[in-house]
Every structure is written in C-alpha cells, then in structure tokens.
Hints:
Elements: E1 8-9, E2 34-41, E3 44-52, H1 63-67, E4 70-72, E5 75-79, E6 85-88, H2 90-103, H3 111-124, E7 136-145, E8 158-167, E9 175-179, H4 197-212, E10 217-221, E11 229-232, E12 236-241, E13 244-248, H5 259-270, E14 275-278, H6 282-291, E15 294-301, E16 305-314, E17 317-320, H7 327-340, E18 351-353
Parallel strand pairs: 1-3, 9-10, 9-16, 13-14
Antiparallel strand pairs: 2-3, 2-8, 4-7, 5-6, 5-7, 6-18, 7-8, 10-11, 12-13, 12-15, 15-16, 16-17
This protein binds pyridoxal-5'-phosphate (PLP).
Pyridoxal-5'-phosphate (PLP) binds at residues 74, 195, 231, 234-236, 256, 258-261, 301-302.
Amino acid sequence: MDTVMDINITKVENSKLNDLNLENIPFGKYFSDHMLEADYENGEWRNVEIKPYQPLIIQPSLAALHYGQSIFEGIKAYKDADGVAYVFRPYDNFVRFNISAERLCMPTIPEEIFMDGLKQLVEIDKNWIPFRENHSLYIRPLMFATDTLLGVRPSDTYKFMIMLSPSGPYYTTPMKIYVEEKYSRSVKGGVGFSKNAGNYANSMIAAKEAKEKGYDQVLWTDAVEHKWLQEVGMMNVMFVIDGVGVTPELSEGTILNGVTRNSIITMMREMGIEVQERRLSIDEVVEAYKKGTLQEVFGCGTAATIAPIAELGYGDFKMPFDISTFKTATELRKQFDDIRYSRIPDTHSWMVKI
Ligand SMILES: *Cc1c(COP(=O)(O)O)cnc(C)c1O
C-alpha cells in the first residue's frame, strides 16, 4: 500500500471483533473498530484522523438535520484466498462523491483524504473483511453540514467520515418490483444523479406502499409522464430484450451513475452482448414481455450486486420471470464474483490492493 498523507491515528485497545462472528452477518448492522473523520473549516479540510468508532456529539441546530446537506457513498472491500485485501473501484466513488458535493453546494474532498484515508482505514481494520461468498466489508463515506445556525444557505463547515460495516447479502431472495406511477424520485434539473440523503427519504413512501402490495421495491418512472424507466431503489436496472441489453441512459441526470452499472455494461460488451443506453418506456417492456422477447431483468448496485428480478408489477398487470433462465445475469454474477474474490485476472484494474 502506498499512501502519502499523514493521518493522526488512535487505535482501539481491544478489538470488538473478538465478540463477533463474521459468518452469516446481516447487511449494515455492525461497524468495525475504527472510523475516519475530517473537518472543513475556514475553507480547508483539517484534523484528518482515524480513531475508535464512537458516537458524535452534535447540536440540535446542526444544519444537515434541518436542510439536508448530506451525501454518501457505498464501496466494498474483499479478501482473496491469501488474505490480501482489495477495494472495488473506489476512485469512481471518489469522483461521484465530489459530483454529489458540488450539486448540494458542499465543498469537494481532496483525493488524498478520500483515497488515502480509505486505504489506511481498511488496512487498519483488514481483519473485519469477511472471507465468505456474498460477504464483504461495506465502506460508507459520508459528508454533512455542521454549521449550527438556522437559516437556509450552504453551511460554512462540514464533517467527512468513513465507516466500515462487515456485511452479508443485501437481498437474500429474488426481488418483486412494482412500477411506480404515483410518486417521483427525480426530475430533470433535480438531484437524482447525486447520492444525497434526501433522495432516500423521498423514496421511502413508495417502497412502503409497494410492500403493502406484496413487492420489495419500486421501479421509478419519470416524473412527467410516468412512462420512462429510471432505476430501482438503490440499484440501476438492466433489461435483456431479444438478446440486447437495454438500460436507461444517464443524460437526463435523473438516475445515479452506478459503478456496478458501468462495470456490467463493460462486461456484457466483452461477452459479445450489445448494450444500449437509451430511453426505455414501460410500454416497450410490457410489449416485449407479451411477445416473449423480454428475457431478463435485473438490478445492479454495490450493496445488492446483481439482483435478478422475479416479478415486475405494472398496475394490475404482473410479469413473473423464471430467473433460473437468466443466462446473462448468472454469467455476470459469476464473473463479477470471480473478479472481486480475485479468482480470475483483473483485466480492468478495478481492484485496488490495500
Ligand atoms: C448507490 C446507488 C446505485 C448503485 O450505484 P453503485 O455505484 O453501483 O453502487 C443506484 N441507484 C441509486 C439510487 C443508488 O443510491
């Protein structure tokens, strides 16, 4: 590991790992021994430190709580059979983090703090990376406004943090997804492309109502016509129609530019599958389903990786799928796992060694 930045490090006396079994661990429930913290004050980042994971002391007037300047990322670290730790494409998350920051009038974070900080933190808590299929160390960078003054304006001060959560699978069963036509996640000119906290607060009611109908999540449609497909919960979405991969385009700025989305598009093209990034309507999907040319539909994101969709519901119309026939999703999942657990050569240099 080559790092350049000088980070103040305070280590725990006793690791919590002694009391925790990393087998069969749920997603996002446990946190490792250490966290990284940095403060933005007077126009610069300072006090970069790694210290024991602990509560924060905050004022009730904390700006992030009132006005929502809060962004995050999700990245995963893995271990190979020799116990060497790798992080999957963290630089892409660093770039996206700063895109989110700029949209919300927050300061960007320097590459050394994000990348070196992340590497040093993972190195220190390397033993927290589970070595088990479908398990990983989930890395959660976070930035939020810390001014303690009421009034809507960009905060002058911020906190950047990274925490680590050893995790098992996000979804344990194939998903049933409801096509959302009542609520909207994002609009052109909005914040749909940024990973900011408010997007998730906004989305919960749709997921809640979908659950009441027997679904796990929603597939968002555009806010104007409720016709053009966007993405699913915390995942981008990929359809295979007549042998061609089709996924909603990024150009409207209404969906997250997923690192997993980008990775699977690359892998599909290498597998010889044509992939189209374009506008895709629910009508086209329904028509393809009725004709029998809609072969596969799956979600893709860091948390859930590649998640086959077992049923799509559109109003009263149900489109069940036999996911055991999903050739592309299955092959992608296998290749993806082989790359992440270092079982095949990493020809794209996606794995960053710690
Ligand atoms: C994080 C996220 C994704 C997936 O992005 P990855 O970089 O693949 O993890 C997709 N959609 C939304 C809304 C997200 O928050």
